[in-house]
Each structure stands twice: as structure tokens, then as C-alpha cells.
Amino acid sequence: MNTPKAFNGEYVDLVIVGGGMVGLMLAAALRHSGLHIVMIERAEYQPVLSMGLDARVSAIVQGNVNILKSVGVWQYLQDKAGLMTSMRIWDGQEQGGIRFEGAEIGEDKLGVLVENISLIHALQDTLKESPDVELLCPEAVESVVWKRDRVEVALASGRVLYTPLIVGADGGRSWLREQADIDVFSRDYQQKGIVATVKPRFAHQGTAMQRFLNTGPLALLPMADDLCSIVWSAADERADELLALSDDDFMYELNLEVGGVFGGIVEVGERAAFPLKGQLSRHIVRPRLALIGDAAHSIHPLAGLGVNLGLRDAMVLAQEIVEARKFDEDWGDMDVLTRYMKLRMPDVLMTMASMEALHRTFKSQLPAWIKLRGFGMKALGNAGIVKQLLMKNSTGINLPVPHTIE
Ligand SMILES: Cc1cc2nc3c(=O)[nH]c(=O)nc-3n(C[C@H](O)[C@H](O)[C@H](O)COP(=O)(O)OP(=O)(O)OC[C@H]3O[C@@H](n4cnc5c(N)ncnc54)[C@H](O)[C@@H]3O)c2cc1C
Description:
This protein has a domain at 10-47 and 64-69 and 130-185 and 279-395: FAD/NAD(P)-binding domain. Helices cover 33% and strands 30% of the residues. It has helices at residues 21-29, 62-71, 116-127, 175-179, 236-244, 247-258, 306-326, 334-363, 367-382, 384-395, and strands at 10-11, 14-17, 37-40, 49-50, 53-54, 57-61, 82-84, 86-91, 97-101, 111-115, 133-136, 141-146, 151-155, 160-163, 166-168, 184-200, 207-213, 216-222, 228-235, 265-268, 272-281, 285-286, 289-291, 297-298. Strands 8, 9, 16, 17, 18, 19, 20, 21 and 24 form a nine-stranded mixed β-sheet that branches. Strands 11-3-2-15-23-22 form a six-stranded mixed β-sheet. A four-stranded mixed β-sheet has the order 1-14-13-12, with no helix packed on it. α1 (21-29) packs parallel to α3 (116-127) and α7 runs antiparallel to α8 (334-363). The longest helix is centred in the C-terminal third of the chain and has 30 residues, at 334-363. Residues 17-23, 40-43, 58-59, 140-141, 169-171, 175, 193, 195, 231, 274, 293-294, 298, 301, 304-308, 310 line the site of flavin-adenine dinucleotide.
């Protein structure tokens, strides 16, 4: 590729705005590519602590654990990951439910549970020995100007960069997306997700529990040291009530809903809450701009797939940038970026549609619908091949691992 025409600034091959899990993943995937990458993160990395753990936790499905392994991140993470060997889903309104075991699809686990801050640290550790990746934190972008052959980026520190491609990995309220004047299709669930670390009476044995209550889904996710992380999605008003309760009263309410799972909850850590929104950017690429992760799409956390989609965006974009470079193409050009978009859209749209369908299915309180739902779950539990296919899709193990980038 011809380097863009010089202007009074410093040339870099790629600028990434946002150093969350997804932005860092892109940098990690490209760290041996020889590209000079500048990543800009505006906030200091701060955990939200609950019983000594970051209250923000992500379930990483097995397909993405494989990706983390291929990129060399897993070695820094494995000691901190809680293993999820099985999952039980049941309807708060109906008896019975459905159980998924890793062994049903030939895997020893369905995925892992990690604190977001641990994944961030593991990705940073992976980047430590990479002189080509500059992580600027805290740093802010003051202005960004798109030209035909480059993007000009002025930083708050006074540095001025120009690059063929800028990537927005700056989350659901992406500043970069706004600068590019791209709007979003948005769905406000009018719910908040309450997260906290809790201690159950008995060992969780690697089982994740998801219960669909009439107020929203409640997940108990197995963490290291026999702790669990909860994600309790509730309508705004109910969530605010729950947040205002004392620890003891909150634990009482929680125990009413967990239905005696793991012998009940005996200790709860600090709570944090996040408004729940579904969102899809109207464009995820523009000339010299690509959006990844929540900047491109965010989904209801009821199946814990948001960052999983983002990690796959990062890997596929990295792969397309490396391919473009190999064939002397301009990786900020729409031909290259369209390839990234086309590869990612089916996965993103299918996941978003499934989340919406699940949300609607479990929201309805009509008695006939509740019966039908119970019947559907039982049928799925007995439908060997269909169940396996569903499990393979949702754990991402049937998706190709984008090739390792060396
Ligand atoms: C309650 C809850 C539970 C969840 N559980 C799961 C789960 O189990 N599994 C799962 O896969 N997903 C889960 N998710 C979704 C997951 O958290 C998100 O998909 C994920 O955080 C997206 O990562 P990201 O890096 O794209 O964005 P973010 O995590 O939002 O990171 C964006 C980064 O960009 C930085 N930034 C923002 N603006 C700027 C700027 N102008 N300049 C520089 N930097 C900037 C921010 O400081 C931040 O570090 C959950 C979400 C919620 C709310």
C-alpha cells in the first residue's frame, strides 16, 4: 500500500479508539503483524470491586477461549477463570427446565467466567513485549478528520497522527461513531442489569444457572473459589428498589428468586447496575473507519454473548487487515472493510435476533404461553441433534477460528 501523503503529523498504521476488552483484543491479534498501532483509552482501568472481585464479569464461550489460546492471551488468564462445565436454564413460572453439558458436544467445558478486569490485564500482558503497539492511557482524542487518503487524529497530549484506518472500539456510546455521524437502531429494554459477587452455601461445581423470572432473567455464574457472579435483569423500577436495599434485605430477595439453587446464597458483595439496551450501528464501516464490539452492536446480556461477538469482530478485522497488507491493499479502503462487514454481519444479526426472541418468549406471562414455553424447553431437552446444534452455535465452537496472525 502507498503510505498516505505526508502532512504535518506522525504516520501510524492503525489507530484504535477504546482500550476495553475488544479494542485490546484487536491490538493483541495484530501484535506480530509489524504494523505500528496506537491505542487510545481515556479512562484509567478501575475494577468495580465486590467481595474482592470485579463485579463486571463475562462468560466467554468455548469457541472464544480457543481464539484467546490462538492469540496467546489464555496463558495469562487461565488461573483466574472459573470453568463452566454445564448450564441449567429454567422458567420461574414452570416446573422443569433444560440442562446443557459440555460433554454433549465433545467439550470438557462450555466456556469460562472471567472478571472483565482480568481479561483486560491478560490482554495488556500479551501486549507488553510488543514494541509496535502503543497503549496511551489515559489519553483522549481531541479531533478526528477524515480525508480521502487518511484520517487525521489530534490527541489531547498535543500529538498529531495520521493513519489509513481508525477503529472505534469505544463502547456502546461510541464517541467516534458520533464523530462519523452514524446513528444507531436502538432498543431500550427499560431494565437494569444488577451485578454482584455472591457466595452460595454449596459448591457450584462449574454449573451456570439461568432462571427466567417474570421480572427478567437471573443468572448465577460459576467463578473461581466457589463464588458466583449474578446478573439480575429487572425492570428499572424494581432494579432501583433492589439497589436501595441493605445487603441482608437484598440477599433475602435474591434467595426468594434463586429457588434454593446451591443451597441458597449466604453472602453478597457490592452491587453495581447497568442500563440494558440493544443497539445496532446503522453502518459498521465507512471509508477509513471500522466499528467493533459494543460500538458496532450491543445486546441484552441474558445469554452473555456481547463481548463474545466483539472478540470475534476484532479477530476478523485483524485477519482482513493482515490479508490486505499482504496483497498491498489499502486497509482503510471500503473493499477491505466491506469484507470485514460481510464476514461479521450474519453472526451479529443472528445473535441479536435470538436475544430478542428469547427476551420476548420469556417476558410473556400469559398462562397458555407459559405452558407452551415449558413444552418447548422439554422438547428441546429431548431433541438430541437440534440441541447439539444449538449448543455448538451458542458456544461458537462451530465457527472457524480466524487464522493466527504472525
Ligand atoms: C450486566 C452485564 C453483563 C454482561 N455479561 C456478559 C457476559 O457474560 N458475556 C459477554 O460476552 N458479554 C457480557 N456483557 C456485554 C459486555 O460487557 C460488552 O459487550 C463488552 O464490555 C463490550 O466491550 P467493548 O470493549 O466493545 O466496550 P467497552 O467494554 O464499553 O469498552 C470501551 C472502552 O472504550 C473507552 N472509551 C470510551 N470512549 C472513549 C473515547 N472517546 N476515547 C478513548 N477511549 C474511550 C472506555 O473507557 C472503555 O474502556 C454484559 C454486559 C452487561 C451490561
